[in-house]
Specification:
This protein is an alpha+beta fold. It is built from ten helices and 13 strands. It folds into two domains: 4-103, Roll (Ubiquitin-like (UB roll)), CATH 3.10.20; 113-342, Glutamine synthetase/guanido kinase, catalytic domain (Creatine Kinase, Chain A, domain 2, 2-Layer Sandwich). It has helices at 4-8, 107-114, 117-120, 158-171, 198-217, 244-247, 251-264, 266-272, 308-313, 329-342, and strands at 19-26, 33-40, 53-56, 69-79, 88-95, 125-136, 175-180, 186-195, 219-222, 237-242, 295-297, 304-306, 318-320. Strand 1 (19-26) and strand 2 (33-40) form a beta hairpin.
Length: 346
């Protein structure tokens, strides 16, 4: 008799050309990820060739019961590290039957910004440092901490950490590194450099893969910016950014002008940079105070950090350290592009 693991790992390629596509979308909280699978007649490598699909928005807090249909538009394809073979993960955004983006669809507005000629010609690059905290399943206390107590030296859950890293590489996500963070039980992975809207697609799917893996491992992943009160670093999503002009000779002056614009719209950015960020941006633990905008070279306590190499070479990138770990990457990346490339001081 076949074991369950044998059935889960069945290779279908010798028996059928059909594949499984896991459609992924963002739920009603703006942070929860949802998915469901469908069978396709064969391999697909272009999201435009995938069928639209629908779901019951009343069950996800995204539509009323009397008019609950929400339509999924496929936007990006990744290889499926769970089913493997030709099976795929599909990142989608959501619309009403009339074709209007629903309120939690931040991708649609971001895509409009990234498709504008002024932004496209600058080829914006992003590198997002996604921090998160692993919690014990039943007590919601950080993994490796004694129940109700505080830890000694940090313990590494190497198996889970490495599994996520390899699964993202398998999927085709441009994951560039991983590391343990300052607070015990806190971790980080980096996505990028990715161009434009793809940074948001890749980060959301990397989060989806992480949630699947932690569920299998029997632990909980938290993207709360300050999951444990106290004298610990919070969790952020530092967003590194550059444009073509910043990467070329004379780019340092372009960087400084861009930072000036970001400072003038500081409150608008903070309002869109994640829920509960005020618990993290206290002016301590390698952050600037939430009400203060400042930038500096190699200053991890600044809102915007410029690297020593960028200053020395006169070109490069900068790091926006304000986004919280639960930020929407579509919102943050497009807002940085819109402020630095499209917005003009009135």
């Amino acid at each position: 008799m076949a074991l369950l693991s044998d059935l889960v790992n069945l290779d279908l390629t010798d028996t059928t050309p059909k594949i499984i596509a896991e459609y992924i979308w963002i739920g009603g909280s703006g942070m929860d990820l949802r998915s469901k699978a469908r069978t396709l007649s064969g391999p697909v490598d272009d999201p435009k060739k995938l069928p639209k699909w629908n779901y019951d928005g009343s069950s996800t807090g995204q539509a009323p019961g009397e008019d609950s249909e929400v339509i999924l538009y496929p936007q990006a394809i990744f290889k499926d590290p769970f089913r493997r073979g030709e099976h795929i993960l599909v990142m989608c955004d959501a619309y009403t039957p009339a074709g209007e983006p629903i309120p939690t669809n931040k991708r649609c507005a971001a895509a409009k910004i990234f498709s504008s000629p002024e932004v496209e010609k600058e080829v914006p690059w992003y590198g997002i440092e996604q921090e998160y905290t692993l919690l014990q399943k039943d007590i919601k206390w950080p993994l490796g901490w004694p129940q109700g107590g505080f830890p000694g030296p940090q313990l590494l859950d190497v198996i889970l950490f490495d599994a996520h890293y390899k699964a993202c590489l398998y999927a085709g996500i441009n994951i560039s590194g991983i590391n343990g963070e300052v607070m015990p039980g806190q971790w980080e992975f980096q996505v990028g450099p990715s161009v434009g809207i793809s940074a948001g697609d890749e980060l959301w799917v990397a989060r989806y893969i992480l949630e699947r893996i932690t569920e299998i491992a029997g632990v909980v992943v938290s993207f709360d910016p300050k999951p444990i009160p106290g004298d610990w670093n919070g969790a952020g999503a530092h967003t590194n950014y550059s444009t073509k002009s910043m990467r070329e000779e004379g780019g340092y002056e372009v960087i400084k002008k861009a930072i000036e614009k970001l400072g003038l719209r500081h409150k608008e950015h903070i309002a869109a940079y994640g829920e509960g960020n005020e618990r993290r941006l206290t002016g301590r633990h390698e952050t600037a105070d939430i009400n203060t905008f400042l930038w500096g070279v190699a200053n991890r306590g600044a809102s915007i950090r410029v690297g020593r190499d960028t200053e020395k070479e006169g070109k490069g990138y900068f790091e926006d350290r304000r986004p919280a770990s639960n930020m929407d990457p579509y919102t943050v990346t497009s807002m940085i592009a819109e402020t630095t490339l499209l917005w003009t001081k009135s």
